[in-house]
Amino acid sequence: MEILNPDMWVDKYADYLYNYTIVRVNDHEVAQDLISETFLAGLKSKKNFKGEATERTWLISILKRKIIDYYRKINSKKGKAEVHISYRDDDAEGDWLEENAADPFDKTAEDKMENKELGLAILDCLQKLPEKQATIFKLKTVENFDTEAICKEYNITPSNLWVIIHRARKSLSECLEKNWFN
Amino acid sequence: MSMKFFLKCDEATHVCDKSQYNEASFLEKLLLKMHLFMCKLCRGHVKRNVKLTKTIKSANIKILQPKEKQILKVRIQEEIDNEE
Questions:
Q1: What is B7-59 written as a DSSP string?
Q2: Which of A1, A8, B31, B45 could staple A51 via S-S, CB 3.0–4.6 A?
Q3: Is the pTM of this model over 0.80?
């Protein structure tokens, strides 16, 4: 039975939720607001958490609704409910459906989709590490912080830092081997 | 790192980690190359480590800044305090 620990939410899930959101709304400020709203909504409906899902899955389900609400809101602001889809522009050649189908060799969309999932898989693996280790690893690897800056911030020596980085890389590598590459 | 010709495996591993962040010196990289020439185990390690670096890069992960997280934490704490 899972229980909720709201005071740990930011450290444990903020980056995961942020990555989930940013690929969907594509705006830093909006993503931040949605995450903040999600956490607050989570607090308010704490008693609805039945412990069937993990804490993160539960927060994601709230976030999904927030994202949908966000799109509803910006759509209603436009003042038209009608959505026009032009299946193809008039200048395009070829009337046959086949000619208008997606190019199977154009894999960009698919690649992007996979990258979305990969980012979440990596963050998922990092969540298994001790909190401080994961944070330091992310700052160093994702944000490219200087060794010096991190050491100063966390009051550790460079050799401490490299031990942390090494452990994190080892466990991340093993985790991805198991959950992503296979 | 002391100046010597042959690295031990743990030293080679350390240089490999540093070079994933472009923080290994030219000499260190040279010594690593020599070690890899002789050590199959470390060759495997380097291969995995480089693969991990590429994988992370291709994922294009975005994280919140420590400051931004702090703001979120404060906001949540306020809400928790309000309830009590």
A1: --HHHHHHHHHHHTTT---HHHHHHHHHHHHH-HHHHHHHHHHHHHHHHHHHH
A2: A1
A3: no
Q: Which residue of A has its CA nearest to B62?
A: A19
Cα A97 to Cα A87, A100, A102, B52, B63, distances in angstroms: 10, 5, 10, 42, 42
Spatial CB neighbours of A149, under 8 Å, sequence gap ≥ 6:
none
Closest chain B residue to A116, measured at CA: B59
What number of C-beta contacts closer than 8 Å exist between A and B?
92
Contact predicate A43/B83, CB 8 Å: yes
Q: How far is B59 from chain A (nearest CA, A)?
A: 5
Residues of chain B positioned with their CB less than 8 A from the CB of A180: 55
CA-based nearest distance B63→chain A, Å? 5
pLDDT tens-digit readout, A82-110 = 555 555 555 555 555 555 555 555 556 66
Indicate the angle between helix axes B40-59 and B9-19, nearest 10 degrees: 20
Q: What angle do CA A36, A141, A155 make, to 5 degrees?
A: 85
pLDDT at A81 over 70: no
Are B83 and A9 a contacting pair at CB < 8 A? no
Looking at beta carbons, which residues of chain B come within 8 Å of A141?
A: 21, 56
Hey, what are A80's tokens? 């038209």
Distances (CA, A) of A96 to A11, A33, A105, A134, B51: 53, 45, 19, 53, 43
